[in-house]
Amino acid sequence: MKTLLRAALAAAALSAALAMPAFGRMSETAPPAPTAPAERARLTVSVIGNGPDVILIPGLASPRRVWDRTAEQLKGRYRLHLVQIRGFGDDAAANASGPVLEPFVDDLAGYIRDSGLEKPAIIGHSMGGLTAAMIAARYPGLLGRVLIEDSLPFIGLIFSPLATIDAVRPQADALLKAALAAGPQPQNPDDPMLATMSATPEGRKQVMQWSAQADYRVTAQLFHDVLLTDIRPELARIQTPVTVLYPHDTVVGPVAYVDSLYAGAYAGLAGVTLKRIDGSRHFIKLDQPERFSEAVEAFLADHGG
Hints:
- The protein has about 300 residues and is of the alpha/beta class.
- It has one domain: 3-Layer(aba) Sandwich (Rossmann fold).
- About 40% of the residues lie in helices and about 15% in strands.
- Strands 1-2-4-3-5-6-7-8 form an eight-stranded mixed sheet, sandwiched between helices.
């Protein structure tokens, strides 16, 4: 029964991300004014502020505006590189069809290299956190430090600790096929499964607003890509210091289960720092903004910023 529930939650997360309702303005406060985005095949990057370089990567179906609060917090002391994957707030371009995750990882690593950034800190949420870990594993020496907000090296672990890519593949393929065939679908904002995204109605509404801008094709493909990505065998290659923030409340699961899930998932990463943020769900930054801000400050202080 628990396995079925976790599978349902994963499918519901995809359904929530694919939902396209409109809820009015996204925010009452204007975001920081960035530079003109740097154009790359799979992503754009807006740069704001001055100081040591920090890269911020959103998660699935999220635009760069998810980092508005963090950008306001840091822009006076850091040069922020606000990433947006094409299709999540702008035209899908090269991401409109075919695999997205691996090309996105390579393109972002290319941006870091081509921009001459020297060991920047990188902060990623969900799929963005997975991206950060993949870059750290595959491009040694490129990054200075990694902060991951609620991401697993293999999302299949929410189904079972014994899950494999081959076991997950039939469900992943079926979800992708169904999502692409159905197109954009309306979603009930009161669906209880949406509660997995945020602990508050305001947070869930904000997530739905961001999702409303996303191209459903890119969302569906990236979810498929993430489901079929397991970087646990690569974790031992990471030499960069990594901190993982993970959420807990009654919807997320019993505390012992949550602790063991993340500890087991990152067991292959020597020296990883795991920090549980209680009273939060998938979007920690929305549910516990002060604690998230404090964690970011501690992370960057360790980075030498």
